[in-house]
C-alpha cells in the first residue's frame, strides 16, 4: 500500500519548474503550458532591464515599457494554466529517482524537469552615480539605446578587452566617441580606433558630472573632465543565481554551460536566456524559451514511458 501513488502524490508533482519570469522563462512557460505540461514559474523579482523607460529592438514591442511586456507575457502563460508564483527559488535538489525538489521561499514542490531562466547581473565599476544614471545617461549597449542618444558626445569605459570593439561600434551612432581607460592599448588598436575617429584618453574614470538630470562630463583620476552626454560601460557579467552551479557544469562567472538545445550537463535541467547566453537580448531570450520547449516535452514523454516500464 505504501508504494501506491495516490492522486494527491501526482498533484504535488509539476512537470516543469521554470525559475525566472523574464522574457526567457515566460516564453518557455508559454510553450510548455500550450503543450499541456503542468508548469510552475517562479518570479523572484525585477528583470535585468526593469529600470529602463522603453524597450527597443523587439519587433512588435518597440516603445513598450518592461512592465507592459512582462504583464502581457504573464497573462498569456496564465491563460493556458501556468502557475506563476512570486517566490525566489532558494535551492533545487536532484533526487536519485530523477525528480527535482524545488524549495521556493514559501513552499517546496517537486518537478520532473527544471528550466533555469534566472538572468544575469551587470557588475558596474565602482564609480559614484553610475547605478543611478542607468537607463538615463548611463548605457550598457548601444543596440538598446544608441538611437535615442544619437549624435551626442559619448564616453566609453570599462573592461579593456571589450572597449576597443565598443568604441568602434559606437561610431555607428555618434561621430564624437572617446574611450577612457587606464589600460595601455597597443599601437595597432590605437591606430584602428583613430581610423574610426575614436579618441582615446589613458586615464581612469572616477566620477560623473551632472547638471540636473543631464550628464555633462566624466571626471578622471588625473583631474581631467571629458565632456559627454552619454556614457557606455563595458561591464562584466555574472550569473544572477547560484542554482546552476549547484546542479550542472558552469563557467567561471557561474553561467550554466549548455548545448545548442539549452541542455545542461544534468539530464532534466535546461538553461536559457541570459542565464546561459550573456549576449542575448529580449528577442533572443524569448526565442531561447521557445527553442527548448520541444526538447523538454520530449524528455518528459520519454522519462514517463521509462517509469511506466519500471512499474
Ligand atoms: C539597461 C538595460 C537596458 C536594456 N534594454 C534592452 C532593450 O531595449 N531591448 C532588448 O532586447 N534588451 C534589452 N536589455 C537586455 C535584456 O534586459 C535582457 O536581454 C533580458 O532581460 C534577458 O531576459 P532573461 O529572461 O534571460 O533574464 P531577465 O529578464 O533578467 O529575467 C530573469 C528573472 O529571473 C529572476 N530570478 C533570478 N534568480 C531567481 C531565483 N533564484 N528564483 C526566482 N527568480 C529568479 C530575476 O529576478 C528575473 O526576474 C537591456 C538590458 C539592460 C541592462
What does this structure look like?
- This protein is an alpha/beta fold and 311 residues long.
- It folds into 2 domains: 7-121 and 237-310, FAD/NAD(P)-binding domain; 124-234, FAD/NAD(P)-binding domain.
- Helices cover 30% and strands 26% of the residues.
- The protein has helices at 7-11, 23-34, 66-79, 130-133, 142-145, 160-170, 187-195, 243-247, 282-310; strands spanning 13-19, 39-42, 83-85, 89-94, 100-104, 108-116, 120-122, 138-139, 154-158, 177-180, 198-201, 205-211, 214-220, 225-227, 230-234, 237-239, 269-271.
- The strands form 4 sheets. Strands 1, 2, 3, 4, 5, 6 and 17 form a 7-stranded mixed β-sheet that branches.
- Helix 2 (23-34) packs parallel to helix 3 and helix 2 (23-34) packs across helix 9.
- The relative contact order is 0.17.
- Bound molecules: flavin-adenine dinucleotide.
